[in-house]
């Protein structure tokens, strides 16, 4: 299994500001993903974080809005830029571990006011 | 495009009754299917992973079946307890799509004492 730590766990942000979420894994993993869960909704994949290269974004998500870094095999960041109330969501980091099992962090709960 | 549906969206049962949660997917070319549990204010906890070559997986009171040809999976929870109250999510992985997960909308379960 993999233990995933996300920071911050919660935050209240002002409209127009940006926030960076950190994801730290206790072991090296090949694949890391960022998901968004809007209130009352299921999870939607934002992007796959690639180590040493640009992230691969899903339809509807762009790098200017959600820049992602992955400097090594245990760490990634997601930035939510120029936030609006529509960005109020849970942002979850996940990793692909052995046996093709996906593990999730506890999530970062963002409220934009 | 893979679509995952979970029925019912919500379920309320008295303690001790068996739970049956359904998940259906449109594209049978999956690599595996995973069931998760999400408690309010928390991230996702992996419950069971079924590889495409398997027909079921069991862990304690939980049993998940997979019928790939018909695009269905069922999660059974025996002798439900109030602590089983949570949202249950199923997700399918398509290896050809970069090991990404496509999630269902979830089933919100309430077990009444």
Overview of the structural elements:
The complex is a heterodimer of chains A (113) and B (113). Chain A is an all-beta fold and 113 residues long. In chain A, 0% of the residues lie in helices and 51% in strands. Chain A is built from no helices and 11 strands. Chain A has strands at 4-7, 10-13, 19-25, 31-37, 43-49, 56-57, 68-72, 75-80, 89-96, 102-104, 108-112. In chain A, strands 2, 4, 5, 6, 9, 10 and 11 form a 7-stranded mixed β-sheet that branches. Chain A is globular and about 40 Å long. The N and C termini of chain A lie far apart (37 Å). In chain B, 0% of the residues lie in helices and 58% in strands. The model of chain B has no long low-confidence stretch (mean pLDDT 93). With 113 residues, chain B is mainly β. Chain B has strands at 4-7, 10-14, 19-25, 32-38, 44-51, 56-59, 62-67, 72-77, 86-94, 100-103, 107-112. The interface between A and B is medium-sized, with 23 and 23 residues.
Considering the chains and any ligands shown, give keywords for the structure.
heterodimer; A: 113 residues; mainly beta; seven-stranded mixed β-sheet; 0% helix; B: mainly beta; five-stranded antiparallel β-sheet
Question: From the alpha-carbon coordinates, what is the Rg of chain B to the nearest angstrom?
Answer: 14 Å
Which overall shape of chain A is indicated by the principal axes computed on the Cα atoms?
globular
Query: What is the subunit arrangement here?
Result: heterodimer
Coarse morphology of chain B: globular
Could you tell me the strand content of chain A as a percent range? Answer: over 45%
Number of helices of chain B: 0
> Class by helix and strand content of chain A?
mainly beta
SSE string of chain A, helices as H and strands as E: EEEEEEEEEEE
Count every helix of chain A, treating DSSP H or I runs of 4 or more residues as helices. Answer: 0
Number of strands of chain A: 11
How far do the termini of chain A sit from each other? Answer: 37 Å
Q: Which runs of chain B of at least 5 residues are low in confidence (pLDDT < 50)?
A: none
Structural class of chain B: mainly beta
Report the major sheet of chain B. Answer: 6 strands, mixed
């Amino acid at each position: 299994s993999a233990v995933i730590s996300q920071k911050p766990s919660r935050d209240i942000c002002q409209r127009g500001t940006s926030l960076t979420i950190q994801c730290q894994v206790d072991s090296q993993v090949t694949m890391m993903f960022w998901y968004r869960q809007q209130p009352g909704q299921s999870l939607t994949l934002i992007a796959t974080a690639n180590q040493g290269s640009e992230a691969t974004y899903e339809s509807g998500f762009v790098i200017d809005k959600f820049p992602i870094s992955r400097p090594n095999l245990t760490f990634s960041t997601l930035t939510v830029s120029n936030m609006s109330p529509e960005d109020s969501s849970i942002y979850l980091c996940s990793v692909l571990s052995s046996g093709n099992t996906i593990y999730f962090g506890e999530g970062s709960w963002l409220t934009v006011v | 495009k893979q679509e995952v549906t979970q029925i019912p969206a919500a379920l309320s049962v008295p303690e001790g009754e068996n739970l049956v949660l359904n998940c259906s997917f449109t594209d049978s070319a999956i690599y595996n299917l995973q069931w998760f549990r999400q408690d309010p204010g928390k991230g996702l906890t992996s419950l069971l992973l079924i590889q495409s070559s398997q027909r079921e997986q069991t862990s304690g009171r939980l049993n998940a079946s997979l019928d790939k040809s018909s695009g269905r999976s069922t999660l059974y929870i025996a002798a439900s307890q109030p602590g089983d109250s949570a949202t249950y999510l199923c997700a399918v992985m398509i290896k050809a799509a970069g090991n990404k997960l496509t999630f269902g909308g979830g089933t919100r379960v309430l077990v009444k004492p």
